[in-house]
Amino acid sequence: MFVKRVLAVCFVSLYLASALGALDISACQSLSSANTVYRLTQAVSIQGATCFSVTAQNVTLQCQGYQLSSNKTTDTTGVSSNQLNTTVDSCVINGFGDGVDFNGAASSTIQHSTLTNHSEAGFLASNAAGIQLTNTTLSSNQDGIKLDVIDDVTFSLLNVSSNSRYGFFFNDSIGNQIYNSTFSGSGTYDLFSDQASSNTFVNTTFNRSHVGWNDGAASNITVKWYFRVLAQNATGGAISSASVNVTNASSGTPQYQLTSDSSGLTSINEATEYVQNGAQVYGANQTNHTPHNVTGRIAGYYFVGSSVQNSTNVTVRSSQTFTLVLAGNWALIKGTLRGRKIINTSENGQFLSESNASPYGHVLVIPQDGSLNYSALTALTRNTANGFESTDFADADALLNLTGEVDSIAQVFGGGGTSPSQTDTFTLAGYARTQVPVVNSTNSTNFVTGLLWHSQAVNNYTQSAKPTLTLVTRVNRQAQGKYGVYDYEIRVPATLDAFHGGTVVELYGELQ
User: Fold this and answer.
1) How far is it, in rounded angstroms, from Cα 36 to Cα 57?
2) Of 1, 98, 235, 246, which cross-links 255 as Cys (Cβ 3.0–4.6 Å)?
């Protein structure tokens, strides 16, 4: 589970114990000395009355795990305060009318406590700005928590269960946030709102069918979850510095612009699942904000099985990490020829059957459903009359979704220009193809990759005609490549599979 925003109050009592005067107590009483930490040294019990009344500012009650108990008399309280900066720490409070009552006690805190078995509310607060409630269990009360005219406070790490009426009762309270908490087993509703709007639950579970309203559309709640994105390559390695954009898939409204770190993870953020008001019924007409459209982007990578800038829709109904798998814009295919069969390729396994012909001279790669006619192969950047075509690299990049990439066709084969940086001649099935753009397949001249197009139907390469793009490499038996010794190594655009709407590439061996 993700945990956020809960550290601010965890060390309040430790600070106060050292900064304020400390006093040990062993019985219920008025806590009337300002700037004092009262330390309870034993369990205490009282019948039909309030145990501790705080009547001075900056008072901390440290119960040290001891219990305050009573007989559930109404209008009694375990701890009551109307003073600034009261802290109730590590208390077990059982069997009063209300467990803790902050009435006007601004900037006050309850932490590390258990409030249980009260005839009214485990925690009652009214007209108290800046209060905090954290790391506390509230169970078997009438209401677990009741807020009356309380705005813009943050509660966290609450376990609210088995209360006979409401788990959380908002009355005329606006803009409050509850983090990392659980509400369950309430007799009437887990959440109940009366003239209470913009209250938000983050990474918090409750029965969505047990939400009650007293004022129709005037009240509303928002449900959010933590999420982050993990950017990985096709082999599970982390990709750092990937740009991740998150939008509301329904409205298209941008939500976040994130960047992955060295472990491939973005920061933890909050995604809204839905907003519901009192005139809506969950499961029927609440305002959904999920699914979310998550787009990953980094120079030199694309989404596996999809094109550059494509994305995935994710449904956020719990806190989780979403994994986006990206692959390099260029895939490497390498392999060894054994007799008359190509085997042991890095991505395709066996793909040519036995033949009685002589050894192979070249390996060619085309997109699925592409055309391959040796007599129609033409060097990219040349037309069928062998004239120069300055737009071929740009057209190929557009068709492969590589435009603007650091490793686009224009960059790899032309150094960013319109003409090839290097050319070579390939003789394929007796046809000499000159001025073919080439680059080293990886890190040496033992293997080069050439770029051609299939000109059977048209005279020059254009986006509209979309002729088949063909990659070629010479067989160089048992030569050293980047990843070992083998017979061929060819660099292929990773989006070539989808060039004609397919999902794979086709490899051919040219027989000599």
Assistant:
1) 9
2) 246
CB 170 within 8 A of CB 19: no
CB 162 within 8 A of CB 168: no
Q: Taking the CA atoms of the chain, what radius of gyration do you get in angstroms? A: 35
147 closest CA partner among 163, 162, 132, 164: 132
Residues 6+ apart with CB under 8 A from 380: 392, 393, 396, 409, 413, 436, 437, 451, 452, 453, 461, 469
- Binning pLDDT at 50, 70 and 90, where does residue 354 land? very low
Instruction: Provide the β-strand partners of residue 330.
Output: 493
Predicted model pTM: 0.70
CB contact at 8 A, 168 and 125: no
CB count in 10 Å sphere of residue 456: 14
Q: Summarize pLDDT for 432-456 with one digit per residue, the tens.
A: 999 999 999 888 899 999 999 998 7
> pLDDT tens digits for 150-195?
999 999 999 999 999 999 999 999 999 999 999 999 999 999 999 9
- Print burial letters for 280-311: b (CB count within 10 Å at least 16), e (below 16): beeeeebeebbbbbbbbbbeebbbeeeebeeb
Which of 150-154, 216-220, 237-241, 335-339 ranks highest by mean pLDDT?
Answer: 150-154
497 within 8 A of 370, measured Cβ to Cβ: no
| Contact call for residues 290 and 272 (beta carbons, < 8 A) | yes
Cα(472)–Cα(19) distance, integer angstroms: 77
> CA-CA distance, 488 to 130, in Å (whole number)?
70
Instruction: Identify the three-state secondary structure at position 390.
Output: coil
Q: What is the pLDDT of residues 278-291, one digit of tens each?
A: 888 888 888 888 78
Do the Cβ atoms of 330 and 407 come closer than 8 Å? yes
Cβ(36)–Cβ(23) below 8 Å: yes
